[in-house]
Amino acid sequence: MDTAGQESQGTGAMKKAVIIGSGLGGLATALRLITAGYSVTILEKNKTPGGRLNQLKLDGFKFDIGPSFMSMTYETEELFRSCGIPLSLELKELDPLYQVFFEHQPHPYRIWKDLSILEEEFAGIEPHLKTKVERYLAQGRKIFNNTEAPLIKSNVYGLTDFLGKIARRDITLLPYLFRNMWQEVERNFSSREAKVIFSLVSFFLGATPFETPAIYSLLNYVEFRHNGYWGVQDGMYRIIEELEKILRDKGANFIFETEVKEVLEENNRATGVKDQNGRRWEADVFVCNADAASFRGLILKRPQYSPCRLDKMHWGFAPFTIYLGVQGKIENAMQHNYFLGNNFKGYARKFLSSSASPERPYYYVNVASKACPGYAPPGCESILILCPVPDLRFKKNWTDKDNFADNIINDFSKRVHFNVMKNTLTRKILTPEDWESMFNLYRGSGLGLCHGLFQIGYFRPKNKDEKLGNFYYVGASTVPGTGLPMVIVGSKLTFERIIQDHGPLS
To answer: For residue 442, which of 22, 106, 150, 294 is within the disulfide window of CB 3.0 to 4.6 Å?
Structure first.
């Protein structure tokens, strides 16, 4: 038995919380709990905290392993402010947000927040773009204002509560739940390029615009008007480093290379968890930052989350990522870039449920060294390439990973007129198999459960366990959803449930 666990069986002067996993949601929940007076122990499978929001170091280069920018930065500010801590991170707004390369077109489209400049980018292919975008974003603003407080930033306490919250919203928004993002952009834009670009936000939720409800067009409002996209000075991993430092200063106990394999139960309560070495960790409250659906099935053995049922759920695409340290500066690439082909609809509908690697992949490129010079030696670039691919339910074998990576790199080289392959100094590939094993992502899904109509709100795995009265969840596959700001919001919702259930501390 862990000695820290013994403390919680003592005088009762301090309640103890064990956090399973140190992703952003887990660390944010830990910070809220330790500020409220809990003793906190964080168990992490890997050698470093952060989960998917992590950093890779290779041969003098640094890389963001996963997320490379964020939105809704006021949620990060709320986390620090609510815990009485000044936000020491330096945030940098992106404008232009990114650029998009279409195959066989000579120049990329730069996506500016200033709609007058953006209209110039689309001159000749999308007449009156500014007027169209303003109308489209006004509707997104309406959706956002009607959903943020009641459906995103509040807990759901049952189906009646959920339906009641929906019923109190503007009824004119209901159709947005029943048509998809692509149908929505088709209603607003005429050119293929504009439709594709304004539907890219669906990929931030791990799905194509043909599967994502149109209500998530609110994300376009977020990126253009509400808050935009932001990077962090010295890289995204600074968020994790800062949270770890604060938590350690407040007395949190980090235990690395420790993976929870079993939850010990008695009288509908968790009494402890057991790691891969048989060590027990006891506490008054447990918060799971592992995937809220697969943990219930694979660890807690809940029948409703059996592998058979998990496989029938709608999971986000898997990431295929390439990390390149390159000699030379790539002038035609910005920090954030999308590289697309000419058959967006066919590609999105067929490839992401296929067992074959495509010859003409679509992908995202983050040249982090454009904004963070310390990510690469002088005269070099640090590059992350992310290609959404089928999860391991569909494509089980990645022995072709090097050929697939070469295909992407050669395509990237042609688009930016720079021989990346010839100038590569270091290279690492992570397949869906790697993402599954490194971060316990079900079937390698990079963003957890998608946000279809029956996987949001009440229908999403709850942030409080159905059976165990002191066991909670935070992260991408529970409420309110996936993405950095959403898991921070989720940490607040989980914290509120813990305080409601267990009362104020003595």
So the answer is: 294
